[in-house]
Amino acid sequence: MRKAESRLPSRTLGLAPRHNGHDTRRGVERAFLVGVDYRLRGAKTKVPKSPLPAGATAARDSAALRTPAASKPRIPEFSAEESLAELRALTESAGAEIVGEVLQHRDRPDPATLIGRGKLEEIAGAAASSEADVILFDHDLTPSQQRNIENALHTRVIDRTQLILDIFARHARTKEGQLQVELAQLNYMLPRLTGRGIEMSQLGGGIGTRGPGETQLETDKRKIARRVRHVKEQIEEVRRIRAQQRQRRESVPVPTVALVGYTNAGKSTLFNALTQAGVLESPRMFATLDPTLRSITLPSKRKVLLSDTVGFIRSLPHTLVSAFRATLEEVQRASLVLEVSDASSLTCAEQDAQVEIVLRELEADKKPRLHVQNKLDLVPAAERSHLANDVATVYVSATKQTGLPELLARIDALLDQDPIQRVRLRVPQSEGKVLAELEAKSRIYARSYRDGAVDLELDAPESVLRRVEKWAVRSQAKGKRSDAASSTRP
């Protein structure tokens, strides 16, 4: 661990190339991956318990959700192989080259080194022969475990949380995103300084004295704590500004629809397909960190704001959820949540379950929700023929632009803000501005011209109808077709 500096950089924990006896001129770090599979399900693991995700496909998940001892459904879990495959994708997103991997099966974790001394020796030999610069563990390590493993392997060791933090630091573009990542990194770093006093000292401690190592440690802790306070103050300012912007938006009846989902589910591609915003699309994990809001027009001519958010992932570090709370408030305040899934993924049910966990932590799990199964074009044709939209699910392909009209119509039907009403109006032809607004913001079913006025039968949002209320035709019985309905339709 490097000494903390008075001004800590945004990216302090990552996979920056360092010389450790290997040639770093190649510019890409060589990573060796370590996965652990605990055979005893009673062993202490970090799998949280929660109800099934809304919109999960029952036919696909029924076998995975059964437990032999009880009939209660349980949350789908990633297998060790699937988890290791996800670590490979994370490693590639961090810009490293994978030179080897190992998966150990154990009954329970070793409290000192997680995987045991024998396996450490095996990994040390394999990592040395492959000239690995860093060892990546598909597990969260305690500070003492990380130090013990580093001492045994003589190579940098990074756990899953630290790897995710590094990817976030690489992809954050806005000042807000960089602050949120830095706060998460600092909170991760602070407990890992303890016990490193001698390593961090430039001199050395004497017997029976406190020693400059401990003094340096306390100095670094103070610097980090001071920086944490400063970053929190800046993030609070961001939250204040966001709250003001949200208040201005909410003063006008424009509902917000938030895209959420597992990382790499295609949220940004879908966002671009609906808004033509041109945000970054990438197959790499966590390509989107900074939230984007764009306006879209629904079939009813209502406008809504669509929000693209950061992707979720299994065991998303709590420090990240806390740090990104300012960004994720868009999800909390949304009128409708679109939960985007990768329909082609073999771990779709497991990913949906992890999204449900994060939504619950954000207290957004009770929001009205529509499940959007994306990447339909990647589903085998034989399976695709059995997939059909239902009341809770819509199948789309953002890249092929298929299923998007059905998705927009479903969003339109689910939103109850600024409701649509069917009315008859008789507007004077001299009111050109009003007629133009109705043309732009309503769905006109019939129109006719009589006595210098235009008779209209239309569906329009309540906010529009309030401005044209004086031209409403009230003599007709509710539900009865107007005279205009018999005229030429557009």
The strand count comes to 13
CATH architecture descriptor name of the largest domain: 3-Layer(aba) Sandwich
Strand content: 15-25%
- Rounded to the nearest angstrom, the distance between the terminal CA atoms is 70 Å
Radius of gyration: 28 Å
SSE topology string: EHHEHEHEHHHHEHEEHHEHEHEHEHEEH
Mean pLDDT rating: 77
Profile the largest sheet.
Answer: 6 strands, mixed
Question: What is the third-level CATH name, the topology of the largest domain?
Answer: Rossmann fold
Mind explaining what this structure looks like?
The chain has 490 residues and is α/β, with parallel strands linked by helices. It folds into 3 domains: 24-171, GTPase HflX, N-terminal domain (Rossmann fold); 250-414, 3-Layer(aba) Sandwich (Rossmann fold); 421-486, Alpha-Beta Plaits, CATH 3.30.70. The chain is 37% helix and 18% strand. The protein has helices spanning 58-61, 80-93, 117-129, 143-153, 160-171, 175-189, 197-200, 211-250, 267-275, 318-323, 325-332, 348-361, 381-384, 404-414, 432-441, 462-465; strands at 30-38, 97-106, 134-137, 156-158, 256-261, 292-297, 303-308, 336-342, 369-374, 393-395, 420-428, 443-450, 453-461. The strands form 3 sheets. Strands 6-7-5-8-9-10 form a 6-stranded mixed β-sheet, sandwiched between helices. It has a 4-stranded parallel β-sheet with strand order 2-1-3-4, sandwiched between helices. It has a 3-stranded antiparallel β-sheet with strand order 11-13-12. Strand 8, helix 12 (348-361) and strand 9 form a beta-alpha-beta unit. The protein is elongated. The relative contact order is 0.10. Residues 1-14, 16-25, 41-73, 197-214 and 476-490 have low confidence and may be disordered.
